[in-house]
């Protein structure tokens, strides 16, 4: 079961990189500007090291599927639904980088009507639950902490860029990092 989950994860990440590259080209043609270049390599490293750590911990310690897989799989399924809802809602604006097309309107449809950063929530849940699914506790704890640290840099950088170049303050006037206006 681990190899199926891990293979799906790798294919998903590679596909997302292709989508992000295509969207980046589209945005740059429209005058898109990249923000957060300084921290982006750390995000890439975090995700790559997460995959490596997850794989090694499960293989070296011969971890098996948890007995409560029937609880965790539905949660992970819902996170995948949320991921793709986020990606499709943003359309050509979805990216792994902070890419802003100055003057464009902030997307506030789909899950963005309810939460400002649904994809970051999905990633946080995955980083915690995927390793726990196979008793990879070291990976789950270490990378959850590292992801929280990274999001304290990433989210303010993204919101700052959105506020500077788009109508972000009009769409999401409240200060909360996660709750949009109601």
TrEMBL record:
It is a multi-pass membrane protein. Its main location: membrane. It is found in: Membrane. The keyword Membrane applies. Keywords: Membrane, Transmembrane, Transmembrane helix. The chain crosses the membrane at residues 39-56, 68-85, 120-146. This is Isoprenylcysteine carboxyl methyltransferase. It comes from Metabacillus halosaccharovorans.
């Amino acid at each position: 079961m681990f190899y199926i989950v891990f293979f799906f994860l790798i294919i998903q990440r590679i596909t997302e990189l292709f989508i992000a590259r295509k969207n980046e080209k589209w945005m740059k043609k429209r005058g898109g500007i990249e923000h957060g270049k300084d921290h982006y390599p750390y995000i890439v490293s975090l995700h790559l090291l997460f995959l490596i750590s997850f794989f090694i911990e499960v293989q070296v310690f011969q971890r098996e599927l948890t007995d409560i897989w029937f609880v965790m799989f539905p949660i992970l399924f819902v996170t995948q639904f949320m991921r793709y809802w986020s990606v499709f809602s943003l359309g050509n604006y979805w990216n792994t980088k902070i890419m802003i097309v100055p003057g464009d309107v902030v997307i506030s449809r789909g899950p963005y009507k309810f939460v400002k950063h649904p994809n970051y929530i999905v990633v946080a849940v995955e980083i915690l639950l995927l390793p726990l699914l196979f008793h990879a506790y070291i990976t789950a704890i270490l990378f959850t902490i590292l992801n929280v640290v990274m999001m304290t840099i990433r989210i303010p950088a993204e919101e700052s860029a959105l506020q500077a170049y788009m109508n972000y303050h009009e769409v999401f006037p409240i200060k909360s990092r996660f709750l949009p206006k109601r």
